[in-house]
């Protein structure tokens, strides 16, 4: 079973089409500053995240702070923010 980091590396590899960029990802990698995701990449990234993690994301619940690191994005994907749980409707398993 793949780790969150391995899922994120596969996702970035597909979205950014850059295997070298994907291998440098850590839990602290900033999705905007370090990876250079722009708005078009972000749409593809979020759609790809649903597929990669097997979840359906409620995009209205997604906040900018969820995208500041791989760790915070994975916490969002798992339905947990840094301080509390996401509302049940925010993330549903497919």
Overall radius of gyration: 12 Å
Count of the domains: 1
Number of strands: 2
SS-based class: mainly alpha
Q: Average pLDDT across residues?
A: 83
Helix content: 40-55%
Spatial strand sequence of the major β-sheet: 1-2
CATH architecture: Orthogonal Bundle
Tally the helices: 4
**H-E string:** HHHEHE
Q: Could you give me the name of the CATH homologous superfamily?
A: ACP-like
Question: Shape, please?
Answer: globular
**Beta-strand fraction estimate:** 5-15%
By CATH, the topology is Non-ribosomal Peptide Synthetase Peptidyl Carrier Protein, Chain A
- What is the end-to-end distance? 18 Å
Give a short account of the largest sheet: 2 strands, antiparallel
CATH class: Mainly Alpha
The low-pLDDT segments are 80-94
Describe this structure in words.
With 94 residues, this protein is mainly alpha-helical. It has a single domain (4-93), classed as Non-ribosomal Peptide Synthetase Peptidyl Carrier Protein, Chain A, CATH 1.10.1200.10. It contains four helices and two strands, in the order αααβαβ. The chain has helices at 4-16, 19-23, 39-53, 70-77; strands at residues 55-57, 91-93. The protein has a two-stranded antiparallel ribbon with strand order 1-2. α1 packs across α3 (39-53). The chain is globular, with a radius of gyration of 12 Å.
């Amino acid at each position: 079973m793949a780790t969150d980091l391995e899922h994120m590396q596969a996702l970035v590899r597909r979205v950014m089409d850059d295997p070298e960029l994907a291998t440098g990802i850590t839990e602290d990698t900033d999705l905007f500053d370090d990876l250079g995701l722009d708005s078009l990449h972000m749409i593809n990234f979020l759609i790809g995240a649903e597929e990669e993690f097997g979840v359906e994301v409620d995009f209205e619940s997604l906040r900018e702070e969820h995208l500041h690191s791989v760790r915070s994005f994975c916490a969002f994907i798992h339905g947990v923010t840094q301080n509390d749980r996401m509302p049940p409707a925010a993330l549903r398993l497919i």
